[in-house]
Amino acid sequence: MYRDDELHPEDEKRREYLVRLLTLSAMTATPLSQVQAAWWGSTPEKLPEDKSIFSLEGDVRVNGQRADLGTRIQGGDRVSTQRDSEVVFAVGSDSFILRSNSEMEIEGGGFFIDTLRMLTGSVLSVFGRRSAQQQLMMNSSTATIGIRGTGVYMESEPGLTYLCTCYGQVGLYASDDLDDSQLITATHHDAPKYISDRKIRGTSIRPAPFKNHTDAELKILEAIVGRAVPFGIESELYKGERREY
Length: 245
Fold this sequence. Notes:
- This protein is α+β, with helices and mostly antiparallel strands.
- The protein has a single domain, classed as Sandwich (Jelly Rolls), CATH 2.60.120.1440.
- Helices cover about 15% and strands about 45% of the residues.
- It contains three helices and 14 strands.
- It has helices spanning about 10-25, 30-40, 215-225, and strands at about 55, 60, 65, 80, 85-90, 95-100, 100-110, 110-125, 135-140, 145-155, 160-175, 175-185, 195-200, 205.
- Strands 1, 2, 3, 4, 5, 6, 7, 8, 9, 10, 11, 12, 13 and 14 form a 14-stranded mixed β-sheet that branches.
- Strand 5 and strand 6 (about 95-100) form a beta hairpin.
- Helix 1 runs antiparallel to helix 2.
- The radius of gyration is 17 Å and the shape is globular.
């Protein structure tokens, strides 16, 4: 896992290509939908009820078996990616981009998720709204996050978690001390955090930079579950960090 503002080398190449495509859209009359189709291989729209995977590349596995565009994903499944691999998929009202060298366990009944366990790697996620009784829990090596409806980006490695609440609200807890917690409300990547396995000045939670995910990706994720991001991006070109810390 790369710390600070570093991307995995394969993800760096993808981000550079995305920036070039967005630059083309900003400087010409090319609609953003065409840019997204060039990036993902198809125009993003709500997935049919009988499909889980919007796109995949490389070696993607579900419960250890090689996945294809017809593979279904639901509660009880484990999704993993190898080097230079990535999968974009939805489970019910929630959708995900699982980056390369990542592994995630999904718990729940059918296509309703109640717990996500990020075993290693990186994932960008958007979640449908839930009631207080239906709150989803997302776990990593050092953090537990309570989610009702939001977008988040997580990187998990032994001893350290990176979490950006892209929009919405989460309850963030250090796994080894649930009293070490923060309620985070964000509208646009306002409060990224690192959560480590050791305390500094009495807390395991500290500020972090914005890194390694884009608004365009969030728009894709919301589109494949029939929603829209809560901010406009057509006139905004992603070039790097949105905020400085």
